[in-house]
Amino acid sequence: MGELNIKLPRRIQDSNKSTYGRVLNIAGSKLYTGAAYLSSASALKVGCGYLNLACIDFIIPIVSSMLPEAVYTPLLSVNGVIAESNKIENIKNFDVISIGCGLTFCDSVVDFFKNTLSCINKNQVVIIDADGINILSKTKINLNLDNLIITPHPKELSRLLEVNLEEILINREKYARAASQKYNCITVLKGHETIITDGEKLIVNHTGNSSLSKAGTGDVLTGIIAGLCAQKMNLFDAAVLGVYLHGLSSEIASKDLTQYSVMASDIIKYLPCAIKKAGENGRN
Question: Does the model's pTM come out above 0.70?
């Protein structure tokens, strides 16, 4: 990617939490409590002003004990996942909705996902990750959204486009563009040298290392991008900067912890160092 010239979101002294955006993060299930925490904490750490985590009721005490700064919307559960009957009444009050991290693919979650997307204003920013992408690949949903980001890894993109995984890996740029064109969105195709494209413009990221090959790091990336979008960044720039900071944080963490020992939560801990370094390099 070369020298990144995207500036960090501006911070002003005469401001309040609404100045830096409101994120609704719909995440988590009985088996993936950590995803709800990681995707929420990273959005706050990168600077969004207000984070509401909508998750099944019984994991709220777990996540809130680690993240008291978030606000919580309890959702009814069935068999440890989100029940279809849930409706988030105030969904239109948020600038950014991220959905998918730690959700478990099943009928009730699919129905909840469809119902939720149908309530979103087309001008709100929506970020879809993980099982949210898997739901898109297996259902026919009309995404009438003007501000959409999807963050698949190659296997998820393979399902989404119904293209063989090996073909995706050989032609990553081609199929990342194809996904953006199909869904009218920005695609973040994760992996070594993550690709960000809107179907026309395309950026290849060069930060990061093998420490990112660990469960939970994708949840952190989703939160980082959501937090940057909430601060009124251009969506493409937010995706590019988010991927850059995510990788840079892993590099800085690895210097202290080695690439073997960095965990997803460490990416969040070292994110301030990445932001500081980006600012010192003239990007603030």
Answer: yes
